[in-house]
Amino acid sequence: MEEAIKNFPKQFGWRPEIKNKISKIKYNNFIVCGMGGSALAGDLLRVVTQTEFGSVRIWRDYGLPDNINKKTLIIASSYSGNTEETIDAFLEARRRGLPLAAITTGGKLLELAKKYNIPHIQIPNTNIQPRMATGFMITALMKLMRFEKLSHDAGNLPRSLNINISQRAGKALAEKLRGKIPIIYSSAKNFPLAYNWKIKFNETAKIPAFCNVFPELNHNEMSGFDFGKFSERGGITPPPTTSHYFKGRGGGGRVTLFPQFHFIFLEDKADDPRIIKRMKITKKLFEARRLEVRDVKLEGKGVLHKIFQNLLIVDWTAFYLAQSYGHDPEQVLMVEELKKMIK
């Protein structure tokens, strides 16, 4: 895993090749069908494409959505090529005569693409986990979607991404998060990054993690951490410990709920100023209730650099957390166990 993180920037130096001719139609809508790490690149592409490029939708399920027009390109994305849900989506797209392409290292998906002469890109199989192959996957997606400008920008990432800076930041953050449950908050625009953080904590560090977005969380989730006692003059008076005290039938007593939570706010200067304001105020409200909150700033030279420099931080954080807990950062044994039980 350590070598996979160090070598990650090199993935953007790879030049994908489309096998079988793809239609010359200029698609403006794309549905990326994938699960787990194979869908993360599509999520990240949505951060970039919200303003400049075509609409990108992620489908994490069997089958396909209803009412897809013929100017929408369906992209089946499976790192292993054997993802059950993705293969089902591939077959459904073919049955309905929809424009179709595939991205994979091999497996059944590659066999089907070759059998039916479906345009496809075979990404390098470097024996890494799908969640660590987002560079390969997003580069392949940009090629299929004909995002030439983005592809050019991505080609600069092997030189501009700084492994040492992200490693130092990740190691320091891992020390703060040991024994904690991360909850990652971002703007709605940057939710794919928050979701990537959650996945890396789940799969690499083997710990629970959760994520949500502003402003929606200010209307509901935030209230779940409101355990302070309001004074008559207004304002909050936090309890001596971060716990609830229950009384009533069936007994009572102090129940500790919150000490393990650690909130991470992904701050982006490019966010709507109203979202930035909400983040600052929410942080104050949480700190007044003795909740641990930490800011992680999204910084970089261009949007792609900003995204992947940020994600390298969580890669290192999750890696060092796994080491501190004695976990294998590479394998996802429960996922493999589930797959065997399904078969």
Automatic annotation (TrEMBL):
Gene3D superfamilies tied to this protein: Glucose-6-phosphate isomerase like protein, domain 1
One Pfam family recorded for the sequence: bact-PGI_C
Keywords, comma-separated and alphabetical: Isomerase
Stretches assigned to the SIS domain: 18-160
Gene Ontology molecular-function annotations: carbohydrate derivative binding; glucose-6-phosphate isomerase activity; mannose-6-phosphate isomerase activity
Domain of life: Bacteria
GO biological process: carbohydrate derivative metabolic process; carbohydrate metabolic process
UniProt similarity note: Belongs to the PGI/PMI family.
Protein name: SIS domain-containing protein
